[in-house]
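Troubleshooting entry. The earlier prediction with alpha-D-glucopyranose gave an output that would not parse, so I re-checked the input for stray whitespace and re-submitted. Clean input:
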Amino acid sequence: MNLLHRSIATGLLLASASLAHAQLQGSKPDETPVNHPVPAIQDTETPAQRDARMAWWREARFGMFIHWGLYSIPAGEWHGQRTTHIGEWIMNDLSIPVADYKAFATQFNPTGFSAHDIVALAKSAGMKYIVITAKHHDGFAMFDSKADPFNIVVATPFKRDPLKELAEECRKQGVKLGFYYSQAQDWTAPGGAAAVRGDHNKETGHWDKAQDGSFDEYLHKKSIPQIKELLENYKGYPVVVWFDTPTKAMTPERAAEVVKLLNKYPNLIWNNRLGGTYKGDTETPEQYIPAQGYPGRDWESCMTMNDTWGFKYYDTNFKSTETLLRNLIDIASKGGNYLLNIGPDSKGIVPQPEVERLQQMGQWLKVNGEAIYGTSATIFDTPTGTFSTTEKGRNGQPKFIPTWNWRSTTKGNKVYVEIFDWKNTFHVDKMPRKVTSTYLLADPAHKPLKFTQNGTALDVQLPEKALDPIATVLVLNTAS
Ligand code: GLC
């Protein structure tokens, strides 16, 4: 990734007050320094060290999230009752007793799982990294764990370690691998935290006596030892640790115990969900794209293709490839990454509608990837939508309603314009740079297009037909 270009672009944006940053001016995350019991890498490294650590991640732009675990067996339904919520929460939402849930392990034999095929799928989609649920809130470890026997190697007939197989394939196929780990919530381990929901205990969130116990004991006997196993046992992976739902249990002191471990891996990237006031490396907007990104912060929108992370057999509400691609482009135009989820079933098979969409996205990226990978945010101040006056979004702020005309990304002298709504001309009132030539990225001949630049206004004459029905990329070579 050209860090230089990124910082030039950022500098340009900051310097140019006349650019109203309609696309980019987000709420700046609180920069007040926090006195952590154990300083994390983000507290001690220099900006240059940080840029070097984040370089591959910023270049990548597109990753695969995998939610896979025992919850793929009930697949959204238990004893005839369907959950209305996300699949991996079924144990909590339907108050499944610990013993009943744990018994799913004896049936878990995902012989259709192929690390090779999943990594190849990520690759063909143009994804550069994978983050898989090593342990979700249900407490079931999808890896070989000595720390706790409720895991895929010890407690199932399958006996294989999918994380190990994925690590090997990722190494072979050149994809990065990260692990999601639910550090606080654990609904099957005594003492594990549970977000308080429904009619569960108002203090502990528990619904089964078997869940009661000491959180500190859980943290020191299961959570931290398992994080240690994950960090130590996969030779060079994980490159990302993706924490989740810290709950109030993750006090600064407890989180500091985890940070001590993380600090031993100076190249590691970890998200903002550890808890205990640690901000980590990345903001993680979930199921939405922030209206203006997070200027000055790395961020990653994680999203599902249907309405669940973990497999639910009856959720067929898949977004179109068009929506998914527009999301990727929208995110890149705001300087973020897209972590797009797949939810394999109890046999380890990736649902076909997910495979198809990923392959279609990959086809677009094969031609147009240059406009996504290693790019930085738009240099234009054109608004990308409006804020609703009535509806609230997932962040509690007025909901942002995007308009899908075009977006833009930048890399060095090149400005990419991803056009959704094709017209005869591409026009902007304010083009902050001098354009020297223009062409369509999908045109193998890169035939120059006619353009005029009058004052700040730019008009590029486009051919009658879009080269891609979803997004055709116009390239503007610029003098700076
Ligand atoms: C939420 C959910 C969880 C899911 C995660 C992904 O926090 O608790 O089930 O894994 O989002 O971002």
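This one parsed fine. The longest strand covers residues 385-392.
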